[in-house]
Amino acid sequence: GTAAPVAAGGAVVAPEKVTLDESQPKTTIQIRLHDGSRVQQQFNVTQTVGDVYMFVASATPGSEFDLMMQFPRKALENRDLTIKEAGLENAAVVQSLK
Fold it and tell me: Which residues pair with 97 in a beta bridge?
């Protein structure tokens, strides 16, 4: 979709809602944004790393970033993996600006 306009005065832009399939297993991912704020978001474990990127991009419009696992610290590069395959169930990830 299109990037959300940034509100005047640097107000927080609400991330877009993640659509969950209530019949599928869910997990909560904690995301530390580049400004140090934290966001928790539920995802289905069958959603992809790319879905997590899209959620974070909607929270921080206009930024180029990688998402990093905290332990071990590595970039989540394969956006086609499911959250389960990527080991992100109940994980904490960090937004790292490029």
Answer: 65
